[in-house]
Amino acid sequence: MTEMIRALVVDDERYAREEMIYLLEQFERVKIVGEADSGELAIVKAMQLQPDVVFLDIEMPKVDGMEVARTLGSLKKVPLIVFATAYPQFAVEAFRVHAIDYLLKPYDEEQLQQTIARVEQLLLQPKTDASPKRIDRLPVEMDGEIYYIPIGDILYVHREENWTKIVTPTRDYETRMTLKELENKLTHSSFFRIHKSILVNLVHVSSLTPWFNGAYQLEVDQRPEKLSVSRNYVKELRQRLEG
Question: What is the CB-side half-sphere exposure of residue 176 using CA atoms within 13 A?
Fold first, then answer.
């Protein structure tokens, strides 16, 4: 039996949902497992149904599509996100939350075909290697440009208020991605959380010094600042550093 792609359709406008469902039903490998008319319901349905892909409107009251996408990014099984909207100005923000595509209303059937082909490629192509693939570069959108930062160059990542700072030897980058989102992307690399707001690349750790109340301070190569290590992370951190 042909493997099916499980899709959830989210739009607060009934007719827009019905149109998307109708168009998706023309693809034999796509199975509509549910629909939602609000961001809140979309999150609940995604947790219950565990779709492979979510076709997601952006402009919705209360919880909009961007917030839904960020929330879904923290799930154990993260679905692919395809935004469907009448507003092209959201495109840059959409790719900040790692949507795989961006469909404009009214829908173009040829573009939808290309989107489904991309979804099939990501979900259904046979895996030649069962082990997770490491990413070599981290894409970060900043000031309207996308920078591809070599993972090995990242010294540490620090969450500051509504921004996350990515620190390298040559410059710092700021992104709206949360620390959790970055941690998920770097899970197969040499990064370790030393504090609720700090991830460190263990390859670049140069010193670890006792501080107070069981906490430590850590330094990385080529940077003068001392980073706080919460005592809850100290034992595992030392195990990782000492092999």
Answer: 15
